[in-house]
Specification:
Oligomer: heterodimer
Helix content of chain B: over 70%
Strand content of chain B: under 5%
Number of helices of chain B: 4
Strand content of chain A: under 5%
Distance between the termini of chain B: 27 Å
Number of domains of chain B: 2
Largest sheet of chain B: none
Order of helices and strands of chain B: HHHH
Largest interface: A-B, 90 and 67 residues
């Protein structure tokens, strides 16, 4: 695969918004991770091999709380389940990209997906590869720098882990504003609060996810029946 | 704390994340059609899971003990309002976190 200057230029330009986002969020991840006792190497390896922003933020809490393997596994499935659907919509685009395909699939984050799925110009594997590679690099760089800053300056002010809460509130609000149907969002919050009260802070995550999946399944069934009776 | 168990957790997280990214290409790479129920879950789950993650972050906040979750409430409201106003993810996160850090270090001591 031969790269031209214009390929690189185009990829740098396209990934600039991701650059600023990943550096800042990665930096925050590194600092929070360090504040829980995990150093630069952990930040580097997690960002290199997990490479999933919100999941890594959740993982900090699970790691520092010594969660069980089962909790980690189920949480990862549910937090990252959306990737299943990114993949489904990229099957055609990534059909003939060649040997680089496994890497392109591995590095399909929310942000990389948003760049490659909106690219209509030409089906260019070189461009996909560069975009994926650059974004991955920004994320690893940001988080490693964050953990290094934590180590060097002992910089972990009290309350820095609120960055995680802020990230999720931002995404929650963004989703809320971009959708007319809020029932799934409300179901998520309500089911989690109820499970938190019943099961306590240490073990409410798995029950919440089960209740959410069940509630949304029932909701689909009810709406389908309602739709059918309205159409009849 | 960093130990073998943490390393196992990181490994599990990495493997499952990668598996989720590869599964669609392996399962639906042919011509098979995605089941409607899966498509539905893919559409609605992200909304619910994000709500759950917000609750997850605030799980250790105590309403009965000082400072009664007030810093968290102010922090969350700041992030939400800022985001509704500007819709700039970075701004919302950085400013919201800064407000919270100031509150817990200087106001609610």
């Amino acid at each position: 695969m031969k790269l031209t200057k214009s390929d690189i230029k185009r990829a740098v330009k396209a990934t600039f918004p991701v650059f600023s986002g990943y550096i800042v969020l990665g930096f925050g991840f590194g600092i929070v991770l360090h504040s829980k006792g995990f150093g630069v190497l952990w930040a580097f390896l997690m960002s290199l091999f997990i490479y999933a922003g919100s999941m890594q933020y959740v993982a900090i809490d699970l790691l520092s709380g010594g969660a069980s393997v089962i909790t980690m596994a189920i949480t990862t499935v549910l937090v990252n389940a959306r990737h299943l659907f990114y993949g489904i919509s990229m099957i055609d685009k990534y059909k003939d990209v060649g040997k680089i395909k496994p890497y392109l699939i591995f590095s399909l984050t929310d942000e990389t997906y948003s760049l490659v799925c909106t690219d209509d110009e030409n089906n260019n594997p070189k461009y996909y590869t560069l975009v994926s590679l650059f974004n991955h690099f920004y994320w690893v760089l940001g988080s490693t720098l964050g953990a290094a800053a934590g180590t060097l300056f002992n910089f972990s002010p009290k309350g820095i882990d609120f960055a995680l809460t802020a990230l999720f509130v931002t995404v929650f609000v963004e989703q809320w504003l971009s959708s007319k149907d809020h029932i799934a969002a409300i179901t998520g919050v309500a089911a989690s609060v109820i499970c938190l009260v019943f099961f306590g802070a240490e073990s409410f995550l798995i029950p919440s996810m089960l209740v959410i999946t069940l509630a949304l399944t029932v909701l689909r069934f009810v709406r389908k029946r309602k739709g059918e009776s309205e159409n009849a | 704390m960093p130990d073998l168990h943490s390393a196992v957790l990181v490994g599990v997280c990495a493997l499952i994340t990668a598996a989720l990214r590869f599964i669609p290409f392996l399962v639906f790479g042919g011509k098979r059609k995605t089941p409607a129920f899966i498509t539905y879950l893919g559409k609605v789950l992200p909304f619910a899971i994000m709500g759950m993650l917000v609750v997850f972050c605030l799980k250790n906040v105590s309403v009965s003990a000082y400072p009664h979750g007030i810093p968290e409430l102010i922090g969350v409201v700041t992030v939400a309002l800022l985001h509704i106003w500007k819709r700039n993810t970075l701004l919302s996160i950085v400013a919201g976190t800064a407000v919270y850090i100031l509150l817990v270090n200087f106001v609610f001591i």
